[in-house]
Design goal:
By secondary structure, the protein is an alpha/beta fold. It is built from five helices and five strands, in the order αβααββββαα. The radius of gyration is 25 Å and the shape is elongated.
Length: 196
Amino acid sequence: MLKTRHSFFASPLLCTIIVSAAFVTVHGQATSPADTKLTLKAALVLTPEFCATKIKPKGSWATREPGKFEVGKAACEELEPALKGVFSNLTRVEATPAPEEAQVILLPRFVDVDATKTMGAFSNREMVVLLEWTVKDNSGKTVWIETVQGSAKHHMGNMFTHGKNMKLVVTDSVKDAAEQSASKMSASPELRKLTQ
């Protein structure tokens, strides 16, 4: 009788475990719309002027550090690889293409770039990059505008490592902005609507 009672309770328990495992397996394999590429032919416009963008650090002449943040150069290295995973077809161009060459045209613009100021070589400084996107369809109509923020932290560095650390904080903050851009474009209902 004891053996029968255990079998009686074991069957529903076993069924529950199997059904739960099946649900987890199916649920884990499901993809959200944001995980699929946008079936659009996109043109990423990276003009020579955009790629040459350099921003002077903010502050008065007494507190401003020498040099400039070369955000354009970093953006022109990071944006295309980040957006390749979003669109089924992405082409980098230096000027706005003819209407038949792309279904959507991606136009980036730097809105603001700033970095904290620190006192010591091992103090962390944070840089924030604001990148505005305008996406137009092949008729020239604006279909999506979004501003994304990228940020990164690195040591300020001493007189020997300051230049290298400045490049790292610029590259990493722009890379973060590129990744945020890809995520927002991929999840955009307005852009997904164009694929239907």
